[in-house]
Amino acid sequence: MTNVIKGIKNERPFYYFEEISKIPRGSGNEKEIANYIVDFAKKHNLPAYIDEANNVLITKNATQGRENDLGVMLQAHTDMVCEKDLATKHDFSSEPIALIQEGNILRANGTTLGADDGFGVAIMLAILENDEISHPYIECLFTSSEEIGLVGAGKFDYTKIKAKQMINLDSAEENTVIIGCCGGVRTEMTLSCTREENTSDAYKITIGGLCGGHSGEDIDKGRLNAHILMGKVLMLIKEITDFKISYISGGDKDNAIPRECECIIVPNASFDDKIEEIKKIILNKVVAKEDENLTINIEKTDTSSTFSSKDTEKMLKLLSIPNAVLKYRDVAPILPSISRNLARIRTEESNIKIGFSSRSYTKEGLDFSTDELESLASKIDASYYHHERYPSWQDEADSPLVTKWQKAYNKATGKTTVPTLIHAGLECGLITSNVKGLSAISVGANVHDLHTPRETMEIDSMDRIYDTVCTFLSK
To answer: N or C: which end of the chain has fewer CB within 10 A?
Structure first.
């Protein structure tokens, strides 16, 4: 029985959602959740395999009479994006997620909920436990560290996979069946700077209150990037007086649009009489309703050193690089074709470290973004490297797998679902490229504001997805 979630049709998926919410499972910290899944398999007498990357594969034999049916792989990732409000005290490495139900909405207390991809993990455990439905041979693949570049999926031994149909449970829209996603790559850049002693007045600029969001699915919604916005603030100040940067920091996850940024500068002259005007200009840049809580604070502070004027100019160039949607698709569905997220900035002694994520449906699109980043690095004498590159994926809109899911969804819910693409990365591309003849789709419950502390899930939507998976598996 669940302790928090009430008024549900299917108790077991929500029971497991609550159970895994008790387990810390930020990216790179999946050992405990992997052990929990292996223990689950042992308890239910199901074969389980765990690898060094904390990927887990559980198999379940077909029910009598279904032995010759095509095997089905259900797949979800065990890690979650760990983001919290500034005022929230929460240790993601040791503390459980505090779930809160508000009617049909499930959220967490000041942190990300972990419905991405906890709902998929929970549904798979409930399916494996369910001995009442008829089903073909089932493989349930639980992958690790998806949120930091599909790391676990990239290390799994796919010779162990026999299934020819794959249902990835990592979508955030119930009424669509995803048949394609973009590929991605991450870029680390380091700008080495010269420190200079300072005895002058300094100013601390703090940007906060932004919504943020998923750097793929929300990149075209007009939400502000705190780092790019900081660049605009600094350029407004530069019109009044030159300055040197002492410190800049913001963002945390490559796949999350940064919500906060702070910067300390030492100006050549006072700009106190222009502060309110600067703040007004920046506040007027809000175009997305979700960013209406934007705050900007500029106050005097102290700092013992700054970067040189030359290094400050380099940082301003970096903050002005094109960001968000770089190009749209010219065929339906009209989605971003190429995007970039300036995700992380950290000042470390005499270095500034910057993290980018780029997405595109084509290899050429990813190359366009990385080539531009390499050009920038050359201009500002920064070092760089690209990593965690993964492929795009697209299946057929009228494939037998898509049609079968649409029929199952209609039978289970009375509703219809349509095939579409998303501007986000999924493990489908990497997995299908490693398993010959494997057809895939991605489906899921309605989850909103992914990768932010505002993340919520519609409870009845998860109920319907579980019913649809059961219907799909049943003959």
So the answer is: N
Positive or negative, the Cα torsion across 198, 203, 208, 213? negative
Q: Which residue has the tokens 């436990």?
A: 129
362 pLDDT above the threshold of 70: yes
pLDDT tens column, 107-138 = 999 999 999 999 999 999 999 999 999 999 99
Residues 138 and 264 in one domain: no
Nearest to 177 by CA among 393, 418, 403, 431: 418
pLDDT tens readout for residues 285-302: 999 999 999 999 999 999
On whether residue 5 sits in a domain, the answer given is no
List, as one string, the DSSP characters of 258-273.
---EEEEEEESS--GG
Residue 103 and residue 45 share a domain: yes
CB atoms within 10 A of CB 379: 11
Report the length, in residues, of the chain: 475
Closest CA to 75 of 462, 432, 416: 432
pLDDT above 80 for 1: no
**Final residue before a domain boundary, out of 390, 420, 448:** 390
The helix/strand/coil state of 8 is: coil
Confidence of residue 3 (pLDDT cuts 50, 70, 90): confident
Tokens of 9: 């049709």
Distance CA 10, CA 347 (A): 49
Return the bridge partners of 301, or none: 202
How far apart are alpha carbons 342 and 225 in whole angstroms?
8
CATH of the domain at 244: 3.30.70.360
| Token code pair at residue 219 | 């990149």
Q: What are phi and psi of 128, to 5 degrees?
A: -65, -35
Question: Is 104:174 a contact under the CB 8 Å cutoff?
Answer: no
pLDDT in tens, 193-238: 999 999 999 999 999 999 999 999 999 999 999 999 999 999 999 9
